[in-house]
Batch of 2 targets.
Target 1
Amino acid sequence: MANLGNPKNTIEIIQKHGITFQKKFGQNFLIDSHVLDKIIEAAEIRKDDCVLEIGPGIGTMTQYLAEAAGHVVAVEIDKKLLPILAETLAGYENVTVIQGDILKTDLNAIVNRYNDGRPMKVTANLPYYITTPIVMGLLESDIPVDMITVMVQKEVADRMRVGPGSKDYGALSLAVQYYAKAELVANVPPNCFIPRPNVGSAVIRLTKYKEKPVKADDERLMFRLIRASFNQRRKTLANGIGNSSGLPFTREQAAEAIEKMGLSAAVRGEALTLSQFARLSDLLGERGL
Ligand code: SAM
């Protein structure tokens, strides 16, 4: 089958099948072979890898993955794309297409069935409307995945990598950095897609840590504190925690713990690093929930 990294071939398939792009599914298909090569290289795909692709679309990246990997499992929600995938992936014996919603797919079952329970790599040009639940689901769960290389909105890629002091710093930054090393692979302009998205894009590589960079006695409490702090970004951290209905601490208790860490009681959450949130959570956790 003709290489879909060549825009001419993609346009031919689109016209032949009369494809109308589904905005609700975040359909923006890649048409740039350099970007595709870069993704495959950054994802370090080898012949003994089993790769999960989220949203194969018409099979563009799937073709590149199939050339490089041992096996590719691609989960696509849009039923209308299945006959097209059958055509564009004909000849690749090592691709399995599954129709379904990635957020409702049993990924453990896929890893067990197609990779004997060994860690898979995830590679995708993600549908942007569900980037955060997909990425957080992959990081927080115990699904064996060791590397995630994905196209996301440029702004989201920035949020994943920044630390205190940036306006982009928030709960997503802290969660990603707790679970993985986040590296920017490439910035990708709208003209690399058909149709063109309204936003800039970026490829980001998340390598999951075997050992977490900070230790918190109670991981869930730490993330509840982080959420409370960024839900009320303009408030002081002590107020944010004291006001949060989901947390049992008073403003005074929060302020005492913050001062014990050598910080001002008036500090905002956005000034704290991941290890400071871990320390705060340990101090408050000692009080018991
Ligand atoms: N991989 C293709 C490419 O790079 O050209 C298409 C990428 S497009 C940005 C996102 C794809 O994800 C679309 O094919 C869309 O139908 C699919 N998709 C959207 N929501 C999904 C979901 N919940 N589960 C699985 N696939 C989904």
Note: The pocket of S-adenosylmethionine is lined by residues 25-30, 54-57, 60-61, 75-78, 101-103, 125, 127, 130 (CB under 6 Å).
Target 2
Amino acid sequence: MTERITQLNKEVSAFCGTKAPDIEDFRIQMLGKKGKITLLFDDFKQLSGDEKKAVGQLLNQLKNLAQQRIAELKQKADDNDAPAHSIDTSRPAAGNDEHGSRHPIAVMRSEILAIFGKLGFTIAEGPEIEDDWHVFGALNFAPEHPARDMQDTFFIDTQNADNPTLLRTHTSSVQVRTMENQAPPIRVVCPGRVYRNEAISARAHCMFHQVEGLYVDKDVSFADLKQTLLYFAKEMFGNKVEIRLRPSFFPFTEPSAEMDVSCSLCGGKGCNVCKGTGWLEVGGCGMVHPKVLQANKIDPAKYSGFAFGMGIERLVMLKYQVRDLRLYFENDVRFLRQFR
Ligand code: PHE
């Protein structure tokens, strides 16, 4: 038996197959169920105790040698088969564990839309490059209204003096487009970027984001508006929050109001964020002006509606205490990373 082991040792050491199938054949020949080495193990079982001691170690060494030799040759064969430039796309990237994060405006936008979504509001979007009619005319802005002034609005093309092309100053234009295309009941929220000709500072920017809402149906009342806004405020700032509506003016709503929420930081006692008032302003709202319904061919005798609008940056400011509007557009990763 020792002789046979020596002979097989030689055979194994001499084998130098380079192709994977040859190496596999050799493995079966040696270590397969009926392989030469495997059969030696069967013979080994027949030996007496003393003989076993003498041969056992040699036999194990032979088996290990064969396994090692086959593994080495297989590895070489695999390396030879692989194309030189092969890239394993399933391998995790080494050393790069930097993840991106969502922009705070995107986070807040989806939070707002999700809350109104629960009340059955669907999302409507429209173009950022608009015309005067959709941004002002259909919304009951008088022809000489100051918002139309070059000071506030970015005009793109004023050749058509009656209906110039401009960048929308609010997403109320999407409400107009919705009323053009859809009969009541209408229940939409309109998120989007808007532009105003303002000098850029910590508190003002020439572009920002709004979510506006519109609800038109039979018997829609101011109480519905109030309840909707209260629901929104509670979902956004917590159950303890209160809202306050202050009389205001917008050409497209009557009556109109500014909406405040109780300061979530000081609980209404007064702090430097709410400037000691206990209230934070979040947006405008009101009952859709009958002239706006008429301009969009909706009969104000049959239908009524409410509308509201709020700035997304403003809500992020209130929720995360971001004091400088410019941070939203600079894309400094040190700022953005905080909103994972
Ligand atoms: N469109 C107004 C703005 O941009 C907000 C608003 C929307 C006010 C709807 C009342 C009703 O300031």
Note: The first strand starts at residue 122 and ends at 123.
